[in-house]
Design a protein that fits this description.
single chain, mainly alpha, Four Helix Bundle (Hemerythrin (Met), subunit A), 75% helix
Length: 188
């Protein structure tokens, strides 16, 4: 007889952290729309962007604290990060704040990783690396600096672009790491 505590059974996908991740998906459209249409001096693009970015941290903290880590969350969280980041960068490129070359490098890397490592990631053979987490933080910081430059503090444009290029280089390195990890033999 097992002495381990019994936990109530729940559907794996029905958790607070996963609900927050779904909210991050739903916020992508409004964030992008505000980035493209808002006038300089309007703080709302920054506010909504901050809410969107903070949900990435909140869902992870809740998953650990509430012991609600799920395979669904492991799959959805990076998809929400990548889709949202690329969509936001497209919006910023449309308004002239992001060089198209950086956007192409990021989106191209995502496509190559999806094609070359997507199955391994879906099976759970690849997990987010430390460098991947740092890369995401750097790209988020770049986006926030660029949005601040567009809305309230124009002097941050140079910092935002530097962070963007650093994040882009990290993104390519992380992508290569995921491709290499996908080629490793599976553990029994």
């Amino acid at each position: 007889m097992s002495t381990a505590p019994q936990h109530p059974t729940r559907d794996e996908w029905l958790t607070w952290p996963n609900a927050i991740t779904v909210a991050r998906f739903l916020l992508i459209g409004p964030v992008c729309w505000l980035l493209i249409t808002a006038a300089p001096g309007n703080p709302w693009p920054l506010v909504l962007l901050a809410v969107w970015a903070s949900t990435d941290w909140v869902d992870g903290v809740l998953a650990r604290r509430l012991d609600q880590r799920t395979r669904t969350g492991e799959i959805l969280d990076p998809i929400a990060d990548r889709l949202g980041t690329v969509a936001i960068l497209v919006s910023l490129a449309v308004v002239g704040l992001v060089p198209w070359a950086a956007l192409i490098a990021i989106a191209g890397t995502d496509l190559i990783v999806l094609l070359g490592a997507g199955r391994a990631a879906a099976r759970g053979d690849i997990h987010v690396s430390r460098l991947g987490k740092v890369r995401t933080a750097v790209l988020f910081a770049a986006v926030i600096a660029l949005v601040l430059a567009a809305t309230l503090v124009p002097a941050l444009a140079v910092l935002g672009e530097w962070l963007l290029w650093i994040g882009t280089a990290m993104h390519v390195l992380v992508g290569i790491g995921y491709l290499v990890a996908a080629r490793r033999p599976r553990r029994a």
